[in-house]
């Protein structure tokens, strides 16, 4: 259950005093100042320009999105450019176009710039500059923001151009769209890290690394992208990380390790010299031969005596690929407060992306500070966040209503039709699953007000929703958590249980009900193979019928509102249909069902055991903690004998309180 209720320490997004537009125009140069002309800055500039607002974008480089001229270093994006999606709805197809910015111009799509599924970054750079020019966005290039300050409710932004000329302007709102500011290089944590190359600056000439030993520090996409790039030329490539790798196919978070970058893992498990090492880098030193000697600290809980193993390895090159920092606090003076989170790499943001300083927001990749579930850190996610923030700001500063439509009064069919339509076609709910939602509330005449694309956790911070006697929140999300910890998402390759609406694993609609701001309960629709719930999909794919989806929505809403006495048919699979398409397992097949070792709300899908399984050899289980303690002394004696042998095992055991060990 994703509850939108909870206490937060940041100021609420709705609680700002509104000021009339004429007052703002008299007191400031701009309503909005945007810092940075990357994809986030351009996207916000587009919405402001369409609304006729006074804004300016400051960009320190001579072109927009200069970052993509150099990054990713291998030149290939990991954002999908899927041009052919069978269906014709433009909004639906944006689900699979991860690079285009939003606009009303159908010709201004990135899909016209490349046919590659994973396109080259240089094409994105060209597209973004064409986007800025096409809409005549007010970008001032070669202008660096040097300092931002605030007095009362007005920001002052000081800038300097390439010729050293300085100027300043005032603004009501500042939007930081600076993207990845600096590389994360924690030299204070790893002595000698300054000896390593970095992701942004390492030499890309493969001949320099031919038959060399390379260590790459990091466990994300930049690290594995670099490892993959050199895997054909280097003699040995090691990738080291001190925490478990998060695979995107497991987490469904696009920022985790993607399959397109994990060739090194494939080569490691097929024993092709390249390897991954799950250890911590302790220090780096250069020896007399000019090689880099790296000391590792390895946690070994699987040993007879659990402990820490220290060992050294020698490399020709070490490359640090530990991600990015998304905040430069040096640009703010003491009047502005921006607290850092996530190891100092991200700004602390409210549920509508505002810092502790009123009307100072971060947009773009930094929006991932409050979202590690969907796509806030990527273009295909933050383009929707920015559109939502634009509407929130227009409501706050200019009293413009949030986008919504009004459905006929007491019309359950209109409600179910709208929810089915949004679940079938919406690109924003799809890309920002579990983060953005639609909201339904009702006026005094029982007419339905249907709001779109609001942050789930922000909804009940707004008085109009928190005070509503009846409010429904609609969003798409995954359901893998209901299948237990031992179930792997990649094993979900079979049809879901159509007899229930609770056990859907992949992306599917959720509907939550609130009364006076308090969460009451929720319901779900069953999943669809292509995340569509229209009549065409019902007829072509194994999923619930359209009438079943409509009936579940009508029943759930009517149960709360008491609009109708109609009884809705909630049988998802009619008996006559079930007999045609479903055959239960026979007795022999039932005996071959594997034993489920974990109790979970939903049963994971399993394959049947072989008809004649071979006998499984009895295995000795791992000793208990008591057995380990009882065996500590003889084990330590054995380790002492090993450490005293003339062979250099390159082994160091860390001392623990109460234990005496030998270091070597």
Question: What's the short version?
Answer:
The protein is of the alpha/beta class and 664 residues long. Helix content is 23%, strand content 21%. The radius of gyration is 29 Å and the shape is globular.
Strand content: 15-25%
Query: For this structure, what is the CATH homologous superfamily of the largest domain?
Result: FAD/NAD(P)-binding domain
* Content-based structural category: alpha/beta
Query: What CATH architecture of the largest domain would you give?
Result: 3-Layer(bba) Sandwich
**Overall tally of structural domains:** 4
User: Helix segment count?
Assistant: 18
Rg result: 29 Å
Uncertain residue segments: 1-25, 615-621, 641-664
Number of strands: 26
Average per-residue pLDDT, rounded, comes to 88
CATH classification, class level of the largest domain: Alpha Beta
What does the main sheet amount to? Answer: 7 strands, mixed
Tell me the distance between the termini: 52 Å
Please name the CATH topology of the largest domain.
FAD/NAD(P)-binding domain
Q: How helix-rich are the residues, as a percent range? A: 10-25%
Global morphology:
globular
């Amino acid at each position: 259950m994703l509850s939108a209720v909870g206490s937060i320490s940041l100021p609420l997004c709705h609680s700002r005093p509104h000021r009339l537009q004429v007052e703002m125009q008299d007191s400031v140069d701009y309503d909005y100042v945007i810092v940075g002309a990357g994809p986030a800055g351009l996207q916000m500039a587009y919405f402001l320009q369409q609304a006729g607002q006074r804004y300016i974008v400051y960009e320190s480089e001579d072109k927009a999105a200069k970052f993509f001229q150099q990054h990713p270093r291998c030149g290939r994006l990991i954002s999908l450019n899927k041009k052919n999606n069978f269906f014709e709805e433009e909004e639906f197809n944006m689900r699979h176009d991860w690079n285009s910015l939003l606009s009303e111009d159908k010709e201004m799509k990135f899909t016209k710039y490349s046919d590659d599924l994973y396109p080259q970054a240089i094409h994105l750079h060209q597209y973004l500059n064409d986007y800025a020019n096409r809409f005549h966005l007010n970008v001032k290039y070669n202008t660096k923001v040097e300092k931002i300050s605030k007095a009362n409710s007005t920001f002052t932004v000081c800038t300097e151009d390439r010729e050293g000329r300085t100027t300043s302007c005032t603004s009501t709102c500042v939007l930081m769209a600076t993207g990845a500011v600096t590389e994360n290089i924690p030299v204070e944590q790893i002595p000698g890290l300054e000896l390593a190359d970095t992701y942004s600056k390492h030499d890309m000439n493969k001949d320099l690394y031919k038959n060399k030993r390379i260590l790459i520090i990091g466990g994300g996409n930049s690290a594995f992208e670099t490892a993959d790039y050199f895997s054909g030329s280097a003699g040995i490539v090691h990738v080291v990380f001190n925490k478990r790798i998060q695979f995107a196919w497991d987490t469904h978070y696009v920022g985790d390790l993607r399959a397109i970058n994990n060739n090194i893992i494939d080569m490691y498990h097929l024993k092709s010299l390249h390897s991954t090492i799950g250890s911590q880098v302790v220090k780096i030193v250069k020896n007399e031969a000019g090689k880099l000697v790296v000391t590792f600290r390895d946690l070994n809980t699987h040993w007879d005596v659990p402990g820490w193993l220290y060992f050294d390895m020698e490399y020709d090159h070490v490359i640090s690929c530990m991600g990015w920092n998304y905040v430069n606090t040096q640009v703010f003076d003491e009047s502005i407060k921006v607290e850092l989170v996530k190891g100092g790499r991200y700004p602390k943001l409210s549920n509508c992306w505002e810092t502790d300083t009123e009307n100072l927001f971060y947009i773009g990749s930094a929006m991932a500070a409050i979202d590690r579930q969907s796509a806030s850190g990527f273009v295909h996610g933050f383009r929707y966040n920015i559109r939502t923030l634009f509407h929130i700001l227009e409501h706050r500063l200019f009293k413009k209503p949030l986008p919504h439509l009004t459905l006929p009064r007491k019309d359950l069919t209109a409600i179910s039709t709208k929810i089915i339509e949004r679940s079938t076609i919406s690109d924003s709910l799809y890309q920002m699953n579990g983060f953005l939602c639609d909201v339904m509330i009702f006026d005094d005449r029982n007419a339905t007000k249907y709001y779109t694309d609001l942050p789930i956790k922000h909804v009940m911070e707004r008085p109009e929703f928190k005070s509503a006697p009846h409010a429904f929140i609609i969003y798409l999300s995954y359901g893998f958590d209901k299948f237990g910890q031992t179930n792997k998402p990649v094993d979900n390759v079979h049809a879901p249980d159509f007899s229930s609406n609770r056990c859907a694993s992949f992306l599917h609609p959720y509907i939550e009900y609130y009364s006076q701001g308090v969460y009451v309960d929720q319901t779900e629709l069953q999943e669809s193979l292509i995340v569509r719930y229209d009549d065409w999909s019902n007829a072509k794919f194994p999923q619930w019928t359209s009438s079943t989806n409509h009936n579940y929505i009508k029943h759930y809403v009517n149960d709360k509102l008491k609009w109708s006495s109609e009884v809705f048919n909630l049988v998802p699979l009619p008996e006559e249909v079930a007999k045609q398409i479903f055959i239960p397992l026979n007795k022999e097949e039932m005996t071959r069902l594997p034993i489920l070792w974990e109790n979970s709300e939903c049963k994971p899908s399993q394959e049947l055991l072989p008809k004649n399984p071979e006998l499984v050899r009895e295995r000795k289980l791992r000793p208990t903690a008591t057995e380990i303690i009882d065996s500590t002394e003889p084990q330590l004696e054995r380790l002492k004998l090993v450490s005293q042998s003339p062979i250099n095992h390159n082994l160091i055991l860390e001392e623990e309180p109460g234990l005496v060990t030998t270091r070597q």
